[in-house]
Amino acid sequence: MRTFLLAAAALVAAAPAAAQQAAPSPLPAGWQARTDKDAPIEGVKFASMAGGVHATTGPAVILWRPGDQAQGDFAVAASFTQTKAPEHPEAYGLFVGGRALQGPEQHYTYFLVRGDGKFLIKTRTGATTANVTTGWAEHAAVVKADAAGKATNTLRVERTGDRVRFLVNGTEVHSAPAADVEAGGQVGLRINHNLDVHVDGFVLEKK
């Protein structure tokens, strides 16, 4: 009887650990993530879907594959489809120049568009952000969301020689000397909070 009770106790103690190990990852294999203000990642749904990836966010988040490292001349691009209207205009897009993304001094440059036809480029270092462009700027190249809140925009960041160009749907919306834009390093996606966005064709081209 004593042997039976000891075995039963061991099984009960092991059950939580086994359940924890069996819990599915909130991210597709090969992807990593960090939320703004280190909010719980459980608030983000991110999955492979229809040949791309699909994000439904509570908190804002950056998502990346560690192998996507840009050096020298490169281009990174993706097509984003906002599938429904958020309560307020929220943004989505690419980031470049990432480093120390899981640490207190995380750093990256992000290039976003949103449903009201505007774009923004900023940098983040730790908890501090700074504008590269002068706040949100309207541009005819950015497709505005329709009455249902849907819009598709293709974003591209490319470095060639001493210039970094930012393009929306094939049109340059901003360009800067490479010395002024930290573009080399980790690249990935940024999806702001309370959005439902499908991403197709995310690719890093090394030239």
Put the structure in a nutshell.
This protein has 207 residues and is mostly beta strands. The chain has 1 helix and 16 strands. Mean pLDDT is 90; it is low at 1-24.
Could you name the CATH class?
Mainly Beta
SSE succession: HEEEEEEEEEEEEEEEE
- Calculate the terminal CA-CA distance, rounded to whole Å: 71 Å
How many helices?
1
Oligomer: single chain
Q: What is the CATH architecture annotation?
A: Sandwich
Short descriptors:
9-stranded antiparallel sheet, 16 strands, mainly beta, Jelly Rolls, single chain, 207 residues, 7-stranded antiparallel sheet
Please, could you describe this protein's structure?
By secondary structure, this protein is mainly beta. The protein has one domain: Jelly Rolls, CATH 2.60.120.560. Helix content is 10%, strand content 50%. The chain contains 1 helix and 16 strands. The strands form 2 sheets. Strands 1, 4, 5, 7, 8, 9, 10, 11 and 15 form a 9-stranded antiparallel β-sheet that branches. Strands 2-3-16-6-12-13-14 form a 7-stranded antiparallel β-sheet, with no helix packed on it. β9 and β10 form a beta hairpin. The chain is globular, with a radius of gyration of 20 Å. The N terminus is likely disordered.
